[in-house]
Each structure stands twice: as structure tokens, then as C-alpha cells.
From TrEMBL, chain A:
Keywords: ATP-binding, Cell membrane, Membrane, Nucleotide-binding, Translocase, Transport. PROSITE patterns: ABC_TRANSPORTER_1, ABC_TRANSPORTER_2. PANTHER family: MALTODEXTRIN IMPORT ATP-BINDING PROTEIN MSMX (PTHR43875), TREHALOSE IMPORT ATP-BINDING PROTEIN SUGC (PTHR43875:SF15). This is ABC transporter ATP-binding protein. It comes from Streptomyces variabilis. InterPro entries: AAA+_ATPase (IPR003593), ABC_transporter-like_ATP-bd (IPR003439), ABC_transporter-like_CS (IPR017871), ABC_transpr_MalK-like (IPR015855), ABC_transpr_MalK/UgpC-like (IPR047641), Mo/tungstate-bd_C_term_dom (IPR008995), NA-bd_OB-fold (IPR012340), OB_MalK-like (IPR040582). The lineage of its organism: Bacteria, Bacillati, Actinomycetota, Actinomycetes, Kitasatosporales. It holds the Pfam family ABC_tran. NCBIfam families: PRK11650.1. GO terms for molecular function: ATP binding. Residues 4-235 form the ABC transporter domain.
Automatic annotation (TrEMBL), chain B:
This is Carbohydrate ABC transporter permease. Residues 69-262 form the ABC transmembrane type-1 domain. It comes from the Bacteria. It is a multi-pass membrane protein. Its main location: membrane. It holds the Pfam family BPD_transp_1. The lineage of its organism: Bacteria, Bacillati, Actinomycetota, Actinomycetes, Kitasatosporales. Belongs to the binding-protein-dependent transport system permease family. It is found in: Cell membrane. Keywords: Cell membrane, Membrane, Transmembrane, Transmembrane helix, Transport. It comes from Streptomyces erythrogriseus. InterPro entries: BP-dep_ABC_trans_perm, MetI-like, MetI-like_sf. PANTHER family: INNER MEMBRANE ABC TRANSPORTER PERMEASE PROTEIN YCJP, MALTOSE TRANSPORT SYSTEM PERMEASE-RELATED.
TrEMBL record, chain C:
This is Sugar ABC transporter permease. The chain crosses the membrane at residues 28-53, 87-113, 125-145, 170-196, 271-295. Its main location: membrane. It is a multi-pass membrane protein. Belongs to the binding-protein-dependent transport system permease family. It is found in: Cell membrane; Membrane. Keywords: Membrane, Transmembrane, Transmembrane helix, Transport.
């Protein structure tokens, strides 16, 4: 059990490229922290540096108060679960799980006891004498987990441990990992590129992009108060909608229509001396079917429904806004990472609204939507900063 | 459906039998010859009418053959061991490390794989005589291991590339020293590839004829393929057919055993290096 | 991005620290390769240079003291001699015909091994035997098979015929022996190439209405091209240095001698080291030309030329 502290940790490769830049992070004892971001953002490199598998170029790393920059992985007492599971194919499940203890010269009886115990927790008892090749993907994943927990290490490091599982199994294992972590109370650093995993698993989430930490916070903080365009676009599914807007003293002129500013926004924007051209971000649930709205306050816009997706509990309404898609470096990176850039949806900006299932929206028909400005964000297009964030 | 399936199966059955016959017929023929008595040797039948072990007894009584057999085994084994050790080192570097000159090494071993041995026979003949290893074991071991090195490097680097090197990392995090990671994780995984390569190299050395007749002049280092070619009948008027057949069968046996036991591995070894490149 | 702003001093320090690791890796790489490289150079590069040197000398093994430098005369003698050209055409003929036949048969064999539903292991084992068997042994088996009075195959011919004593029949028998021995190797290389053809692509072609022949020529062959070229390259170079089979079957008599046989005879029968070395060097050049042609003309990806990571 230990806290992990990163101070100005930087990784530079021999060719001069910076994989991780000046990361400061304090992970409390027993905390479950997620590193999330698109591929190449430096999250796995950061994890490897904590594990001791990659050298730290600059900065300090402390585990349990001890500086471990120059310690070999074996001296750091951390356990790691790999994306490929990295099970030893020539060893049985029992031997795989007992391997770290065997290396630590633990006596045979203790090894057996601990392995059996972990196998019970993970429901692996009947597979103990099989080789990894004879296990299913989910079972292999559990063996990899088992190999980590038998050691009772200072921390668990997990590198996309669920990304090789199919969707249904991934959800089940997610819950199980969460349960095990809470029961053992071991500090955990978990890397993923899946924002759903990040939101559901972590006590705190660290969003990274191009080697830089974008924001650290609880899932709710990241969702409700993203510091910048990148975090706003990365967290949430369906993603936040972005439209271009011009700022007048008391209105946002958007392709959807004019949206009057409320007091909170006006205050923040004034304080930060916002530019005239901005980007407005609206989450799908910031829209509401005007005919079903409980209160009549707030601005309303009328749009034509392109596609309606009924999910039973909710209905997603897709429509397009005049004017080209909003394009910034951050959003392009997000689009190419999620593959959206390849869908061929050019032309107008596509918007998604999440409405009550009772909506009477019909494809091809106009509908009036009420916009909850309390959930709107205004971003500076030049650097992506959220101008309505209370602290930034 | 069922009828069609059966005729399909029959067709494949016929094809398979043809393939097996094609592969085995010359082998069977020489086995049959080796069990024939001198009087029935020329009867041309596929199955000896008169079985005899005489030919085998005959060759094992001559030092010409027994010495050659010892030479063959000793030379092939030593050349294999050295080639596999050197090949493993180079292949590990090729598969795992970044260093300038790697392409040069690969190009060079490719060049040697294509090298016509006859081009080396005359210079080696002269060099070996002048340094005194002509007609000795080292005189054959050195060219054998050289010409099998490219084979060893290709096959082994193909195997090494297949090893999931994540495991090395996992072992380190699990608390292994680099030496332990190598001994407990990498060696057990690499062993099958090394073993397969050793079989291929051994077959290669065992097979050679040109060097064996060019770089030896007496029984002291002559291997079986070369010795067979110099067999003479026990009398001037007798053809050495029976002895040659028996000797041929004896040196074919190890190959058959390898093929039977390690068929799958040999196929994997032969093809891995060549196609994945 | 922000690297520009960073002090240059740090940059230099890191460069040094990091290249220390790279240097170590490089040193280890060289160290591990060194023994193999030294052996290969010592046993091939040096002798081939020595062969060039020898080929420029009049050097008769019976009179080693009379060796003298005579420039390119040996090459002139070889290239104007009918023996060289006869052997050259024989070798070329054997190479082209046997490799062609092997390719066709090998492809058939590969398809059988790939498609066969049962006894796959048996077929593969059987096919490996010709590959593994000592060439000399196989050659003797063929020789006895075709020897009148002795062999089962000679018995099929009109009596009195001895095919191994006439040029053309003998050449075809050499090809037969060569093809029998090496087709399996070709087949295995092609089989590995076949494994690279995705089953789904073939199904797609089937759905698109391709006949079996079209599927073979339009889908399989193009996808297998790299494997085919590598197999052809290897086999061509291998066939060009044919020695064992000819030595046992005809000893190069009756106009069946290949270049390798010619070189061997000049060295060990005529004991002429100068001429023999000139032949060695010329064969080496021929092989070089073939390899170069393959790589340039057909773009054969030289196996192992690019290490996949």
C-alpha cells in the first residue's frame, strides 16, 4: 500500500521526440486513477515509467515516499497487468500465478495457499492446472489479474487490460476489477483509451494528449466542467456537440439561432476577455423537446430532424446546423482517433440531441428544442480553453 | 450430399496415395535392394524373394563404412552445435536489437545461402592443405557450419520474432532479474525453435557430398555419402550394389526418424524463414 | 512543440544519456553477430578472393613449383573451350526444365497438402522424406532403377536399352531425380505461401462468380507471388549448382556434365588448379547474375532483406 507521486516526469526518446511532458500527479494510497487519452498520448509510457520498464528522462517518481527513478522493476514492488496478458505459455495457470512469489523465494506452502485464495476470488479454481493456451480470453484476463493480486504489491498497474475482450465480457470484468480493487484497497493506475471505462472505474481520471496532462478530476468534474475543448470532446458518449458562434454583449449567435447569455456566462466571459468568434459546446442532454419541457424558461430553436434513433429509454435526434463543421487541431485529433474522420460525413455540422423517449419528433419533420444554457460551454478557438470554466 | 462427400473423399484418398507412393517409391526400392542376396539382386522385383542381412553384416565389418559412419555423425553433430550457437547469437541480435550493419549481415548470409560450393572447393582445397586440416574433421566442419549458418540465422530469427517479448517485461515486473527473465521465460520459449533449427542444420550437413569428396582423401574424415561413392565390390567382378544399398539405408534411417518424430516442426522451420522473410 | 523553447544545454545532456543506451545495444548487437560474420567471411570471402588469385596463375598440382602469373589466359582458355560451353548449356537446360517442372508439381502438391481433408500428417511426412534423404542415396536408387538387368524401371524399357548411357535419356533421368528430390521443398515453400491467401478472399471471389481456375490465377497466384518468387530464386540457384545427382548417375559422361562437374574434374582429375579456379570464379559470376536478375527483374523480395518488426 503506498501513494505514488510524479513530479515533472518527462520522457524523451533518442530521436528527440517527447512522449511525456512534465507530468505532475499525486495518487493517494488506495486510490484508483485512470490515465486516458487517444493512442500516442503518452499514457502507456507513463505507466511503463511507473513500472520501471522505461527510464525516466527528467523528474522524480516516488512510490511510498521512496524515490524509485533508478530502481529495477523487481525492486519497486508493483504488479502489472498487460494488454496482451503476457501469460507465460509454458507454465500452467497455477505456475503463472505463483511465479512472482517463486521469484521472491516465498515457501511452497504459502505460494499454494495464496494462489488457491486468488483463484477462488477470481473463479479460476478448476483451471489451475491448465495451460494458458487452453483458456478463453476472459479466463486469461483473470489469470493475469490473479498473477497481480497474489503478490499483495504496493500498487497495481494495468495497461488496457480489457481491450482484448468482447463488449459484453468487458462490462462484466470492469465491474469485477472495481470490486477487487475496493476490497483490497490497493493503489491502482489504469490505462485505457476508452472513455466509458475511465468514467465508470476511476476515483479520478487523468486525461492526456500529446504527452501533456489536460485535466485531472473526478469523472463528474471532467464531464460537467471540462477545462478545454479536448477534454470536452473526449469525455462523454455521444460526444459533446460543437458549433461556431459570434459573441455579442448578451447573445451567442449560432447557426442554430441566437442564444441569450445568462448571468453566469456573461460574468465568466467578461472576466476572461473572450474573443468575438467562439465555439459553443452543448452536450446531447442540453436539448429538450419543447413540447415536453416542464419549465418554459430558456431559449428555443427549431430544427429539422434528419435521423431519429429510439433506444427505449431515450431518443437520439440527429440534425444539421448551417455552416461548415467546427475544426480545430484538438477536434481533428479526436475525430481521427475515434475513426469519425473516416465516416465521410462532411458538409454541415451534425448535432445530436438526447430527448425524452416520449418525444413526438419524426424524421423529416421540424421540431422545437429548448436549450439549457446552464449546460453550455464556450471555448476559445485559438487555444481550446473553456471560457466558462469557473477556475481556469 | 453424402454421396458427393464420399466421392470427394475418395478422390482425395487417391491423390494422397499417389503422393505418398511418389515420395516413398525410390526409398523402398533401395531398401528392397539392400535385403536381396547377390543371386536375386538382379531379379528386379520390388520385394526381395530371399531376405538377407548379409549386406548389412558386410558393411559393418569394413572399417571403410564404420569409420565413415563415425565421421558422418561426429562431423555433422559438431558442425550443428557450433552453427546453432553462432546462429542463435546472431539471430537474437537480428530479431531483438537495433544496430547499424544489421542489413549487411542479412545480405551477407543471403549471399552465402546462394553461394555455389564448387566455387569454394578449389581455394579451400589449397588453403586446407597448406594449413594442414585437409582430410581432417575440422576440414569438413568449418565449411559445413559456414554454409549452414544462413539457414540457422533465418530460421532462428523467424522463431525469435514470434516470441512475445512482453513476457520479458512481465517477468521483470513480477520480480525477475534480467538473468532470471532470460532463463525462466525466454529460454523455454526459444528452445523449440533452436531444436528445430538444429534438426535442419543436421540434415544439411548429413547430406553434403561435394565437400566430402573434395576435402578428404582417406578414411580418416570421409563421410558416408562420399564413402559410398568409393565402395568397391568384395571381389573385382562383383558390383558393390548390395553394400551401397545397405549403407544408403543406414544413413537414411536417422532422417526418417527425424521426419517421423518432428514432421510438424521441420515444416514450420523450413517455411518460417523463407516466407515471412 | 515546446522543445524549441527548452535550453540547449539540457538537450545535449539527454542526447548523451540516451545514446549511451543505444550505444550499448549497438555494441551488444555487433558482439553477438561478430562470430558468425567472422566465420562466414573467413570461409567464403577470403577463399573466393584466393580463387580469383589462383585463377590468374598457371598452376598444375603435379608441378606446384612451376606456378606463374599468366593474367587472364585461364579465362580465355575456359571461355573458348567447347567443354565449358557444353557444360554451360547442359546446366542451363537442367536448371530451366527442372525448376519449371518443380514449380508446377510443387504447386499441385502444395494444393493437395493445403486442401486434403484427412491424412494430412501422413502426406506431409511422406513428402518430407525426399527432402531429408541424402541426395547420393536417392541418386543411387535411381541409378539402380535404370540400370539394365537390375532395375525395375529399366525393365519397362525395350531390352538392351541403357538410358543412362545416352545423352538425352540421361539428361531427362537426371531431371527426374532432381525433381523427385526437391519438389517437396518447393511444395512446402508454396504451402506457406498458400497459407497467406485468406479463405475469405477466396469465398468472396466465389461469390463474385469466379471459376476455380479464375480463383487460382486471379486471386491465389497474385497473392502468393512473393512466396513463389522466393521459392523460384532459391531453387534456381540450387539447381544451377547441381552436382550430386549427376556425379552418381552418369559421372558427367555422355555429355551430361554440369558446370560443377566440370570444375570438379578439372581440379581432381586434371589436377589443374588454375583452370579449375577460373571455372569456380565463372560459376560464381553466373550465380551472381541469376540472383541479380531475379531481384531486379522480378522484384523478388530477397528473403530477410527487410526485417519485419
Amino acid at each position: 500500500m503506498a501513494e505514488i507521486v510524479l513530479e515533472g516526469v518527462t520522457k524523451r526518446y533518442p530521436d528527440g521526440s517527447l512522449a511525456v511532458r512534465d507530468v505532475d500527479l499525486e495518487i493517494a494510497d488506495g486510490e484508483f486513477v485512470i490515465l486516458v487519452g487517444p493512442s500516442g498520448c503518452g499514457k502507456s509510457t507513463t505507466l511503463n515509467m511507473i513500472a520501471g520498464l522505461e527510464d525516466i528522462t527528467e523528474g522524480t517518481l516516488r512510490i511510498g515516499g521512496q524515490v524509485v527513478n533508478d530502481l529495477a522493476p523487481k525492486e519497486r514492488d508493483v504488479a502489472m497487468v498487460f494488454q496482451s496478458y503476457a501469460l507465460y505459455p509454458h507454465m500452467s495457470v497455477r505456475e503463472n500465478m505463483g511465479f512472482p512469489l517463486r521469484l521472491a523465494k516465498v515457501d511452497k506452502a504459502t505460494i499454494d495457499r495464496k494462489v488457491e485464495e486468488a483463484a477462488r476470488v477470481l473463479d479460476l479454481v478448476e483451471f489451475l492446472d491448465r495451460k494458458p493456451a487452453n483458456l478463453s480470453g476472459g479466463q486469461r484476463q483473470r489469470v493475469a489479474m490473479g498473477r497481480a493480486i497474489v503478490r499483495d504489491p504496493k500498487a497495481f498497474l494495468m495497461d488496457e487490460p480489457l481491450s482484448n475482450l468482447d463488449a459484453k465480457l468487458r462490462v462484466q470484468m470492469r465491474t469485477q476489477i472495481s470490486r477487487i480493487q475496493r476490497r483490497l484497497g490497493t493503489t491502482t493506475v489504469y490505462v485505457t483509451h476508452d472513455q466509458t471505462e475511465a468514467m465508470t472505474l476511476g476515483d479520478r481520471v487523468v486525461v492526456m494528449r500529446q504527452g501533456l496532462v489536460q485535466q485531472v478530476g473526478t469523472p463528474a468534474e471532467l464531464y460537467d466542467m471540462p477545462r478545454n475543448l479536448f477534454v470536452a470532446g473526449f469525455i462523454g458518449s455521444p460526444a459533446m456537440n460543437f458549433v461556431q458562434a459570434s459573441l455579442t454583449p448578451d447573445t451567442l449567435r449560432t447557426p442554430l439561432g441566437d442564444l441569450p447569455l445568462d448571468d453566469r456566462m456573461r460574468r465568466e466571459l467578461e472576466r476572461r476577455d473572450a474573443p468575438r468568434e467562439v465555439i459553443v459546446g452543448l452536450r446531447p442532454e442540453a436539448f429538450e423537446d419543447a413540447s415536453l419541457a416542464r419549465d418554459t424558461g430558456g431559449p428555443a430553436v427549431t430544427v429539422t430532424v434528419d435521423v431519429l434513433e429510439s433506444l427505449g429509454s431515450d431518443a437520439y435526434v440527429h440534425f444539421s446546423a448551417e455552416g461548415g463543421p467546427v475544426s480545430t487541431a484538438e477536434l481533428e485529433e479526436l475525430a481521427s482517433d475515434s475513426g469519425l474522420a473516416d465516416t465521410g460525413a462532411g458538409g454541415n455540422q451534425q448535432i445530436v440531441a438526447r430527448l425524452d423517449a416520449a418525444t413526438r419528433a419524426r424524421e423529416g419533420q421540424p421540431i422545437e428544442l429548448r436549450v439549457d444554457l446552464g449546460k453550455a460551454h464556450v471555448f476559445d478557438p485559438s487555444n481550446g480553453t473553456n471560457l466558462t470554466h469557473p477556475e481556469s | 450430399m453424402a454421396a458427393a462427400g464420399r466421392s470427394h473423399a475418395t478422390r482425395w484418398g487417391v491423390v494422397n496415395v499417389v503422393v505418398v507412393l511418389y515420395a516413398l517409391f525410390p526409398v523402398w526400392w533401395i531398401v528392397a535392394l539392400s535385403f536381396k542376396t547377390p543371386s536375386t539382386l538382379t531379379d528386379g522385383s520390388y520385394i526381395p524373394t530371399d531376405w538377407t542381412w548379409e549386406n548389412y553384416k558386410g558393411i559393418f565389418q569394413t572399417s571403410e563404412f564404420t569409420r565413415a559412419l563415425i565421421n558422418s555423425i561426429g562431423i555433422a553433430l559438431i558442425a550443428t552445435v557450433i552453427a546453432v550457437i553462432l546462429g542463435t547469437m546472431a539471430a537474437y541480435a537480428v530479431a531483438r536489437l537495433r544496430f547499424p550493419g544489421k542489413q549487411l549481415l542479412i545480405g551477407m548470409s543471403l549471399l552465402i545461402a546462394m553461394f555455389p560450393p564448387i566455387s569454394l572447393v578449389s581455394p579451400l582445397f589449397n588453403i586446407e592443405r597448406s594449413i594442414g586440416i585437409f582430410d581432417t574433421w575440422p576440414g569438413l566442419i568449418i565449411p559445413y557450419m559456414t554454409f549452414s549458418l544462413p539457414l540457422a540465422i533465418y530460421t532462428l530469427s523467424a522463431f525469435f520474432r514470434e516470441i512475445p517479448w512482453d513476457l520479458e517485461k512481465a517477468a521483470k515486473v513480477d520480480g525477475a532479474t534480467p538473468a532470471q527473465a532470460f532463463r525462466l521465460v525466454i529460454v523455454p520459449l526459444a528452445a523449440p525453435g533452436v531444436f528445430t533449427t538444429a534438426i535442419l542444420v543436421f540434415i544439411f550437413c548429413w547430406n553434403d557430398f561435394l565437400f566430402a569428396i573434395s576435402l578428404t582423401s582417406t578414411e580418416s574424415a570421409r563421410t558416408v555419402p562420399a564413402a559410398i561413392a568409393f565402395f568397391t565390390g568384395s571381389s573385382q567382378f562383383q558390383q558393390p550394389t548390395g553394400s551401397i544399398a545397405a549403407a544408403a539405408v543406414v544413413i537414411t534411417v536417422p532422417i526418417i526418424i527425424f521426419v517421423l518424430l518432428f514432421q510438424r516442426r521441420i515444416v514450420a522451420g523450413l517455411t518460417s524463414g523463407a516466407v515471412k522473410g | 512543440m515546446s522543445t524549441m523553447a527548452e535550453p540547449a544545454k539540457d538537450e545535449a545532456k539527454d542526447q548523451k544519456a540516451l545514446s549511451a543506451g543505444a550505444r550499448q545495444e549497438r555494441r551488444l548487437g555487433w558482439l553477438l553477430c561478430a562470430p558468425a560474420v567472422i566465420v562466414m567471411l573467413a570461409v567464403t570471402a577470403y577463399p573466393i578472393c584466393y580463387a580469383v588469385y589462383l585463377s590468374l596463375q598457371r598452376y598444375d598440382l603435379r608441378f606446384p613449383d612451376r606456378a606463374e602469373f599468366i593474367g587472364l589466359s585461364n579465362y580465355g582458355a575456359v571461355l573458348t573451350s567447347p567443354f565449358w560451353w557444353d557444360a554451360f548449356w547442359v546446366t542451363l537446360f537442367l536448371t530451366v526444365v527442372s525448376v519449371t517442372v518443380e514449380l508446377v508439381l510443387g504447386m499441385g502438391l502444395a494444393l493437395v497438402m493445403h486442401r486434403t481433408l484427412f491424412a494430412r500428417g501422413t502426406v506431409r511426412t511422406a513428402v518430407l522424406i525426399p527432402y531429408g534423404i541424402v541426395t547420393v542415396v536417392a541418386a543411387f536408387s535411381w541409378q539402380y532403377a535404370w540400370t539394365p538387368e537390375l532395375g525395375y524401371l529399366a525393365g519397362l524399357l525395350p531390352s538392351g536399352e541403357a538410358p543412362l548411357t545416352e545423352q538425352w535419356p540421361a539428361l531427362w533421368l537426371i531431371i527426374l531425380a532432381e525433381v523427385w528430390k526437391t519438389t517437396p521443398f518447393m511444395a512446402l515453400l508454396l504451402l506457406a505461401g498458400l497459407a497467406l491467401v485468406p479463405e475469405e478472399t477466396l469465398r468472396a471471389a466465389m461469390v463474385d462468380g469466379a471459376t476455380p481456375w479464375q480463383r487460382f490465377t486471379k486471386v491465389m497466384l497474385p497473392l502468393m507471388k512473393p512466396a513463389i518468387l522466393v521459392a523460384l530464386l532459391f531453387r534456381t540457384l540450387d539447381a544451377f549448382r547441381i552436382f550430386d545427382n549427376i556425379y552418381v548417375l552418369t559421372a558427367g559422361a555422355h555429355g551430361t556434365g554440369s558446370l560443377s562437374i566440370l570444375g570438379y574434374d578439372n581440379l581432381f582429375t586434371a589436377l589443374n588448379l588454375g583452370i579449375g579456379s577460373a571455372i569456380s570464379v565463372l560459376i560464381f559470376i553466373c550465380v551472381g547474375i541469376i540472383a541479380f536478375t531475379f531481384v531486379k527483374l522480378f522484384g523478388a523480395a530477397a528473403p530477410g532483406a527487410e526485417v519485419k518488426r
